[in-house]
Amino acid sequence: MFDHLSTYATDYEKTKAFYETAFKALGHSIQTEMKADWDQDFPGRRMCAFGPEGKPAYWIIEVKEPVSPRHVAFSANNRSSVFSFYEAALSAGGKDNGAPGPRPMYHEHYFGAFVFDPDGNNIEAVCHLPE
Fold this sequence. Notes:
This protein has two helices and nine strands. The protein has 131 residues and is of the alpha+beta class. It starts with a strand and ends with a strand. α1 (12-24) runs antiparallel to α2 (79-91).
């Protein structure tokens, strides 16, 4: 349904490093990185995008002031990847917001894990397949 999403980082380097570690567990990496030299309000604003090879899908954009937190769920190929994502995100400085496990209130096979990123965004890895 979506082509790409973005979130915002008050500490760009910390947030970039966090997502590099967390996304590695899901098989994603930085696809592009740039400075928004065209931005007159924030010259040199840094941004990067993560995703599968050739698809910059999740953008991290540097901001001066915090913005409202978001929730984004990322697809995991299996339950093991959900565990790996959760552990990687915590090791990179994320804060626990729900350990890996079933969430039957969503549907029978929903298996997810939730972590707050450095800016308080609630990120999740989810697998919809049975064990």
